[in-house]
Every structure is written in C-alpha cells, then in structure tokens.
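Q: what does this look like with adenosine-5'-diphosphate bound?
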Amino acid sequence: MRRIGIYPGSFDPIHKGHIDIINRATKLVDKLFIAVADSPHKNPLFNLDERKEMIENEFSKNSGIEVIAFNNLLVDLADSLNAQILIRGLRAVSDFEYEFQMLGMNRQLNSKIETVFLMADAQRQSISSNFIKDIARLGGDISNFTNDFVSAKLKEKFK
Ligand code: ADP
C-alpha cells in the first residue's frame, strides 16, 4: 500500500522546526502533501502564494513532496488526496492541549485518518513563525531559525 501523508499548517513562514518535521515525516510515507492553510483569521504576513513558494524552494529536489493550498475542512482534503496519515509537530506541553482536542474532533469527523505526532531536534523545538517575524521586524539575526531564502523574504518585507 502506498502511504500518503498530509502535513497541514499556516507556514507563515516555514522555519527549521517545520523542515525538521517534514524530513522526519518523509521517512514514514511515500508521498507527503504539505498543505498550506489560507488562515485569513491569523492575518498572515505572507500571502498563500508566497508561503507556498518558500516551502517549494526548500524541497524542490524532493519528488515525494508536494505543496498545496487549502481552505476547506482538513479531513475532507485528506480524503480527496487519499491520505491516511496526518502529520503534526509537537513543540511543548502548550501544544498538547490544542492538538489533543483537534485529534479528537478530526477522529469523529473521519476515523480512517491516523494522526502521527513528531518532535523536532531539541534546538529546533522552540522555533515558531511568530517569534521569527518579531525578530526579523526588529532587525535581529534569524539565520539559525530559517533558511536563507526565507530570511531574504523577511528582510524584504520589513525593509
Ligand atoms: P507556527 O505555530 O510556527 O505558525 P504552523 O501553524 O505553521 O506553525 O504549524 C504547523 C505544524 O508544525 C503544527 O503541527 C505545529 O505544531 C508544528 N510546528 C511548528 N513549529 C514547530 C517546531 N519548532 N517543532 C515542531 N513542530 C512544530
């Protein structure tokens, strides 16, 4: 059976924590869809195309990864892609409560999809898109937290 996974998030922008999780997830599935949520309620800094482009740039050499955008129900999207595995990254205890609830709700909506939680390497666990944006806005060095392509895009935004 071909294992198809889906890793959803807002990726505003993608960072080394996400990249770590994606690299781990590709070992578990044959095909991984990185699903970029529109998330207008989160007031993203980058629009959907910009967020997709930054992910595509990082994984352009990996044919097992496809970046897609979505604004519908996650379980419906997973169904339409024949994805059986939902990948989520866990950072700290604070993520657990939200993830626990989301898994419970998603399971009631579609019991065929299994959620797999992965943890990044210790030094990448604390990275978050919001902090990166704050640091970049204030002119700080974000090279430890994301790749050069994204760093350049952030510099451009806050120029
Ligand atoms: P953020 O909170 O950084 O905006 P997203 O909404 O894009 O992240 O998150 C997508 C997924 O990636 C979620 O499952 C989230 O828990 C996970 N994730 C985000 N940052 C990290 C990290 N530093 N380590 C592990 N998982 C992470």
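The pocket of adenosine-5'-diphosphate is lined by residues 9-12, 17-18, 21, 88-89, 91, 95, 120, 124-125, 127-129 (CB under 6 Å). The chain has a mean pLDDT of 95.
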